[in-house]
Specification:
about 210 residues, eight-stranded mixed β-sheet, 6 helices, 8 strands, globular
């Protein structure tokens, strides 16, 4: 099922998510059938798009989360698209990810970091790096101003975008920034583990 067909089922927000995920993926050089972690399930758009690309997706959000963006019926959406078999859900807190070190090829935070309490963001970043394989990527998507304007039409109290680099404690990690259509994309890898696709357009920050 192509993206247009999926959007007709899931709605215009899927277009926004899929467009910027599609922009990020060429930089990551993920193997086919890669195991990836989607932090913050929400409506499932990120997990569903990644599953349509052939990846094995583990997605989760805190069991105690009662925010506007949690507890959505992503299962029905994934079933309609035909990718439910590629997505598994496990409730977890991003500051204490219950998975082994190096378990995932990539960890995705699509519009999530700015919703996490600022005091927890460093720990969340450290945990994401811990569960990422050598050569893998931690990828944050944070809203640009036009995206914030769109979201605040329904959620006036929506927090401002976060800058992930402010919460990076290791000097052995490199950042690559890519401008998406709706989100700013921040890609992090441990020094010396960048895949060959890092020659694509994008700004490396040492």
């Amino acid at each position: 099922m192509n993206t247009t067909a999926i959007s007709s089922i899931l709605g215009p927000r899927f277009d926004i998510v899929s467009e910027d995920l599609a922009r990020a993926l060429p930089y990551l050089n993920l193997p086919s059938n890669a195991a990836v972690l989607d932090v913050g399930t929400g409506s499932g758009n990120c997990a569903i798009y990644l599953a349509t690309q052939g990846y094995r997706v583990l997605t989760g959000e805190p069991a105690t989360d009662r925010s506007l963006y949690s507890g959505r019926d992503w299962v029905s959406a994934a079933r309609q698209v035909g990718v439910l078999d590629k997505i598994k859900f496990q409730a977890f807190d991003a500051s204490s990810i219950p998975f082994a070190a190096g378990e995932f090829e990539a960890v995705f935070f699509f519009g999530v970091l700015h919703h996490i309490d600022e005091a927890e963001r460093r720990k969340v970043f450290q945990e994401a790096l811990r569960v990422t394989k050598p050569g893998g990527s931690v990828v944050f998507f944070e809203p640009q101003s036009q995206m914030l304007h769109k979201v605040r039409a329904d959620d006036p109290a929506h927090p401002p975008a976060a800058d992930p680099s402010a919460y990076l404690t290791s000097e052995a990690v490199r950042e690559q920034r890519v401008t998406g259509s709706w989100m700013d994309i921040f890609i992090y890898r441990q020094t010396g583990t960048q895949p060959s696709t890092c020659s694509l357009k994008g700004t490396w920050v040492d």
